[in-house]
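I would like you to sit down with the pair of lines that follows and say whether tokens and residues agree.
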Amino acid sequence: MEIDDLAKRVMAGERRAMSRAITLVESGRADHRAQAVDLIEALKNSGNTALRIGLSGTPGVGKSTFIEAFGMFLLDRGLKVAVLAVDPSSTRSGGSILGDKTRMEQLSRQKDAFIRPSPSQSHLGGVARRTREAIAICEAAGFDVVLVETVGVGQSETMVAEMTDLFLLLLAPAGGDELQGVKRGIMEIADIILVNKADGELKSTATRTCADYAGALKLLRKRPQDPEGFPKAMTVSAYTQEGLPAAWEAMETLSDWRKEAGHFDARRAEQARHWFLEDLRAGLLAQLDRDPEVKAMVQRLGQDVAEGAISATAAADEVLAAMRG
């Protein structure tokens, strides 16, 4: 594969090249991994940047419906939109349904929209292993907004905040104890909480739910990267599109303020450092599999730990001591 040619085609916005590039960075083959690294390095010269928006929410809240409505709204304003929808992988077979694109039928037909469903591959946080590289590809291709839809809600979901500029939490009205059920960790990283389905009979319920979340947000410790009034809770309706203009205005306001205050670039630099360390950890773990002696030791000690002959901590220390020589 000619990486320089592929990089040029991606930067020219060729959809086929984008799909091929994302397939390459998602591959686990060693030769593909080396090519993916060269590709990402080549794309750094594109000079393009996008607003990266992470989106999470409880199952059935209408994430795909919201993304389609929001994506069409952004297209109407002359923006190019890319959607990276991470689909849950089976813990048994490793397979995924990858049905997000079929649920965004209208958006998927637009020439200025790009939708790519990817398997989570059982990685923590429901974010595919190379999602951040897929974001870089979409940015290099000239997209203005990159939406990353993640799987479910939970403490591990905070990983998506380490690769996006804004984090949206989508919730449904009339959720009963949902306010208690949503973990504090995800509440603390949410920049904007959107209560969806604020239409018809649920509109008044959505308004009350929104007020509950607004009150809960005021109890959280003030973050330095937030202007006055943020984080905030708002109501939206993916069905009627009511509230979408106000939600987008809030996102632009928050993004612009962070850029002017220096938080935007500082955050991206911090994220780059974070993923460097994550890749380093992953590389060190992969190195264990490539050393036959260490691999045999890990398997032997793993069996000892399972049988209760040695503690997990002591076994890990023994492996690390062997690697240090």
Summary: Residues 89-99 have pLDDT under 50 and may be disordered. Strands lie at 51-57, 81-87, 113-119, 145-149, 166-171, 192-195, 232-235.
